[in-house]
């Protein structure tokens, strides 16, 4: 058991948060959402109602944009979660405010792009927003250590999902927008990853167990979206965000960066937790490989049938 409180942890890590906030402010580029939207394409919906054929996005690209945007729409819930986890004092509070302000641009820009280009059904999108925000998001009362572990992985996963959605859209305007949003998410991930590394120095045993809990139980914050499981499955099949990406581009690089498997002097509980992470990664790798092989076989059969 740890002999410190959550307040002790936050006080110990506050200088790290302050230093990384300063680093973030020095790197974060100011950008204006309105400059990433092709306003000249806009038309009034009362005179020209939306129809599916107006969108230049594929069905999967529309779906990925919808999921990404509705996930971002839950910002009030996310603000509450990190404000409760970190508090609003000192550098922690300054970070919570800055992070929230930067994240707020993402939904603004994505929604403006989709409405101006008629990329998705605006009625369905608004109904999805109403549902998603009423469901909200709750981390289940995670400790600060678990919050740090979760958001490190989640910010990286979100960065990749946004970036790949932009590429998949086959629209240079969409790709530029999503690359800009992904750049924000990358800086957010680095802030949290540096905190994770500092937490491993302060309390390696507790932090390893927190990382274990978040790796094994990881869920994207968009799980409250209507039909999320089916939408996530289709997004994965398209290769926008799947288990192979989660293993290779999210979990593995973060754990490598903080030298998770090189830590020494862990107690029995932490050592077991690390072994559980290793076993989970091995199983995830194998499962992702089997999924990829099945998809390749399906694609080959489909191609043969169309030949």
From TrEMBL:
Q: Which GO terms describe its biological process?
A: fatty acid biosynthetic process
Q: What cofactors are annotated for this protein? A: Fe cation; Fe(2+)
Which residues of the sequence carry a binding annotation for Fe cation 2?
103, 155, 185, 188
Where does the source fall among the domains of life?
Bacteria
Instruction: Tell me which UniProt keywords the record has, alphabetically.
Output: Fatty acid biosynthesis, Fatty acid metabolism, Iron, Lipid biosynthesis, Lipid metabolism, Metal-binding, Oxidoreductase
User: Which InterPro entries does the record match to this protein?
Assistant: Fatty_acid_desaturase-2, Ferritin-like_SF, RNR-like
Q: GO cellular component annotations, sorted alphabetically?
A: cytosol
Report a single Gene Ontology molecular function.
stearoyl-[ACP] desaturase activity
The note on cofactor binding and number reads: Binds 2 iron ions per subunit.
Q: Where does Fe cation 1 bind?
A: 72, 103, 106, 185
Q: List membrane-spanning regions.
A: none
- What protein family is recorded? Belongs to the fatty acid desaturase type 2 family.
- Subunit description: Homodimer.
* Name under which the protein is recorded: Fatty acid desaturase type 2
Q: Which organism is it from?
A: Pseudofrankia inefficax (strain DSM 45817 / CECT 9037 / DDB 130130 / EuI1c) (Frankia inefficax)
């Amino acid at each position: 058991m740890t002999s410190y409180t959550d307040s002790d942890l936050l006080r110990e890590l506050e200088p790290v948060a302050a230093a990384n906030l300063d680093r973030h402010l020095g790197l974060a580029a100011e950008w204006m959402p309105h400059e990433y939207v092709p306003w000249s394409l806009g038309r009034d919906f009362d005179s020209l109602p939306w129809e599916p054929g107006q969108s230049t996005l594929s069905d999967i690209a529309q779906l990925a944009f919808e999921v990404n945007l509705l996930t971002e729409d839950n910002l009030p819930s996310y603000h509450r979660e990190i404000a409760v986890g970190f508090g609003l004092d000192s550098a922690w509070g300054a970070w919570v405010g800055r992070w929230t302000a930067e994240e707020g641009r993402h939904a603004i820009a994505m929604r403006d792009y989709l409405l101006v280009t008629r990329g998705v059904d605006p009625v369905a999108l608004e109904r999805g927003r109403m549902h998603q925000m009423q469901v909200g998001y709750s981390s289940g009362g995670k400790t600060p250590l678990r919050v740090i572990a979760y958001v490190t992985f989640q910010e990286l996963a979100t960065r990749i999902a946004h970036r790949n959605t932009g590429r998949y859209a086959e629209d240079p305007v969409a790709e530029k927008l999503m690359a800009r949003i992904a750049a924000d998410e990358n800086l957010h991930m680095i802030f949290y990853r540096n905190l994770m590394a500092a937490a491993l120095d302060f309390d390696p045993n507790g932090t390893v167990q927190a990382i274990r809990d978040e790796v094994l139980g990881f869920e994207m914050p968009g799980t409250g979206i209507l039909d999320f499981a089916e939408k996530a499955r289709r997004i994965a099949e398209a290769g926008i965000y799947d288990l192979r990406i989660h293993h290779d581009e999210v979990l593995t690089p973060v754990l490598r960066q903080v030298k998770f498997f090189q830590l020494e002097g862990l107690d029995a509980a932490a050592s077991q937790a690390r072994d559980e992470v290793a076993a989970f990664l091995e199983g995830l790798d194998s499962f992702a490989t089997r999924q990829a092989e099945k998809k390749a076989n399906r694609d080959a059969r489909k191609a043969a049938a169309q030949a």
